[in-house]
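Quick one: sequence plus zinc ion SMILES, need C-alpha cells.
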Amino acid sequence: MSWLQASLPVRQGGLGLREAVRMSSSAFIGSCNSVRSLCSPLLPTTPLLEESVPNSNYSSPDFSVFPGESTAKDHIRSLAPDSLDTIDLTSSSQRDLQRLLDTKLSTTILENASLRDRARLDTISAPHAGAWLRAIPNPNLSLAMPQREFIIAVCKWLGIAFFPPPPSSKRCSCGQVLDSYGDHLLGCGEGNWRNRRHNALADIVFEALLSDNANCHREQRLCGDSNARPGDVYHPDFERGRPTYFDIRVRNFL
Ligand SMILES: [Zn+2]
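Reply:
Sure thing.
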C-alpha cells in the first residue's frame, strides 16, 4: 500500500512518484485529445500527388480514433470503472484523467486502510501538510533535513515501520516498549520533547512574523499585572492594523 500511496500527488498524501503503468494511458489519451482537432487541417483529405498513389485506394485519414486509443481507454476504464460518468474520454485532458485516477486510487487506499492508517491519511491530506516535501532543501534557509530525519519522516508519511517489532523492540526512556511506527514518541511526555517540538515550531512562526514587523514578541503577556499569555507569538498589526496572537498547536493524528 505504501508504494501506491507514494504514487499519489503530495496534496493527496503521496510523494508524487508517479507510476508509469498507471499514468501511461491517461497521458496517451490526453495527448490524442489535444491534437485531434489539429491533425485534420494539417493532412490532406485527398492524395497530394495522384501518381504517387497508383490504383488509388486512398482514403482520408480518420483522426476520430488513433491507433491504440481504444486499448488505452479500456485501461482507464479498468482502473476507474465506477468513476467514468463524470468524465468524457474523447475530450478530457491528461490532467483531468490523471486527477480522476488519483482520486480513485486515493479512495481505494482509504477503503482498505486500518483505522490507524485512515487517521494518518486524513492528517497528511490536510492543506499544507506536504509543504515539507515541496520545500527546496536549502541549508541557508534552515530548510534542509538530515538524511536520517528525512527517512523517518517519509516512513511516518507512508505508514512504514522503522523500529524493530517485538521481541527485539527498543524502549523509550520512560520505560515503555516502542511500537514499530514510533507512535509512542509523538505523545510521550518524557524528556520534555513535546514542549521542545512545540517551541521549535513557535520559533519558526515568530522568525517569519519578525521579518514582517520588528515589534513582534514571543510569549507576550497581557497588559497590567496579568501573567496570562494568550498566544505563543504576538503581532501588533497583522491584519488591517489589528493586534493578533498566534497560538501553536501540534496535532497528534492518533
Ligand atoms: Zn515514552
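Strands lie at 217-218, 233-239, 242-246. Residues 2-47+62-114 form one domain.
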